[in-house]
Amino acid sequence: METTAVKPQFSEAAQAEIKRLLTHYPDDRRKSALLPVLHIAQAEFGGWVSPEVQNLVAEVLDIKPIEVYEVSSFYTMFNLKPVGKHVLEICRTGPCMLRGSDELTAHLERITGAKVGGPASADGLFTLKEVECLAACGFAPIVQVREKYYEQLDTPDAVDAMLSELRNQVHRPALPWEETGLPNALARN
Ligand code: FES
């Protein structure tokens, strides 16, 4: 029997935030809100933006889907494939590399079982990604997880403390615009 995919929908809280964002721009410049709306979409739909979710973003902003794909595929902060509960963005640029980001990556792959650029760990908790400079070189090596930076991860203890904090996180921290209600993703995460 043929199944029809359910079209994704933003939660009421997200819709309200998108409406508020759009008041910052002229009606014929709705595309200017593309980056923040993609962030909302990613937070809402399990930490990644599927083609269907990107089409929804295009619809909301009244732009062509290709205009969304161009942006989502350019910036590393948008995930185009399913991810684990926590996406660990490991900085691999010069200063972090000199302070051991290669060893850090290998260590994280060993401990979590996930591979950089590959699927999430078997327990669904961790996805590993390499990214360029996170602008915190003085605290290298750095890993970013959502809005939080984990700094000076050059000892096993520091890495263990980060992983244990993330493992114990029941829900991801709420974003400012989520205070008014639980969006789709929070109910699942
Ligand atoms: S090189 Fe890693 S934060 Fe700048």
Automatic annotation (TrEMBL):
The keyword Repeat is assigned to this record: no
InterPro entries assigned: NuoE-like, NuoE_dom, NuoE_N, Thioredoxin-like_sf
Origin: domain of life: Bacteria
Keywords: 2Fe-2S, Iron, Iron-sulfur, Metal-binding
CC cofactor: [2Fe-2S] cluster
One Pfam short name: 2Fe-2S_thioredx
SUPFAM superfamilies found in the cross-reference section: Thioredoxin-like
Similarity section: Belongs to the complex I 24 kDa subunit family.
NCBIfam families, per the entry: nuoE_fam
Protein name: NADH dehydrogenase subunit E
Naturally occurring in which organism (per UniProt): Hymenobacter glacieicola
Lineage start: Bacteria, Pseudomonadati, Bacteroidota, Cytophagia, Cytophagales
Gene: nuoE
